[in-house]
Amino acid sequence: MLSNPPPAGSEPAPGLMLFDLDGVLVNSLPVMRAAWEAVSTQLEVRVPFEAYVEHLGRPFDEILTLLGLGDTEGFAQAYQTAAVRFSHLARPFPGVEQALRDIVAAGCRLGVVTSKSVTRARPMVDALGTPFAVLRTPDQGRGKPSPDSLLLALVECGTDPADALYVGDMAVDQEAAQRAGLRYAHAAWGYGALTEPLPLILQEPAQLVDLVRERLAKGSV
Fold first, then answer.
1. How far is 203 from 194, CA to CA, in rounded Å?
2. With the CA atoms of 9, 95, 127 and 108 taken in that order, what torsion angle do they form, in degrees rounded to the nearest 10?
3. In the chain, N or C: fewer CB atoms in 10 Å?
4. Are residue 152 and residue 197 in the same domain, yes or no?
5. For the chain, what is the domain count?
6. Which residues, other chains included, contact 129 with Cβ-Cβ below 8 Å and sequence gap of 6+?
């Protein structure tokens, strides 16, 4: 059953809120579809985009291996080039940009931990127009569900796991958070399904602000 966030004060307000990118901050499926179909046509690969979507959340090279494309010459590089070219098709989910501004105003820092490469993620992160303290990708360590990227983000920000929260939408996000010792919240507007144990579930981006309401009430900056 879906649930609302707990009332302010029931848990410590996080000082650092980390986000998955695809399906949480931005709807990037149009980007991925356009890039996948362009490269599949170019290289005569007959794996449907829907098969790729089933593995979202994992590093791209790992997905290619799972789809039997790990040895397809040039696919990964061609896809990355195409994804950057089509990055303008990504759109923030309704309410995300305002929620991010309100979270920053509450004195909580922001970060992104994604399975995208830095090259593909950076244009989408920059387009959100909000300062992020950290951006971590599999370029800098093992990708999700490994906890490496989350732990490296905490180190870079000088933050204890107890003072951070990870917001994701896929099973690999939840597993990575658990392995890193982080609280986890599930973005119900994203691409993935819920997995056990049921996490804190957010129905809309505005509820992210409820998680830092304690800082707002205290006037923290």
1. 13
2. -10
3. N
4. yes
5. 2
6. 97
Residues 6 or more apart in contact with residue 191 via CB below 8 angstroms: 22, 23, 29, 53, 56, 169, 170
Query: What confidence score (pLDDT) does residue 10 get?
Result: 55
Tell me the residue range of the domain where 66 lies: 29-89
User: In 3D, which of 70, 37, 71, 73 has the Cα closest to residue 53?
Assistant: 37
Cβ partners under 8 Å of residue 81, min gap 6: none
- Predicted confidence at residue 199, as pLDDT, reads 87
pTM score above 0.90: no
Residue in the structure block whose two tokens are 């300062």: 131
Residues of the chain where predicted confidence (pLDDT) is lower than 50: 1-3, 5-9, 216-221
Q: At what angle do helices 75-85 and 118-127 cross, to 10 degrees?
A: 10
Q: Pick from 72, 89, 106: which residue ends a domain?
A: 89
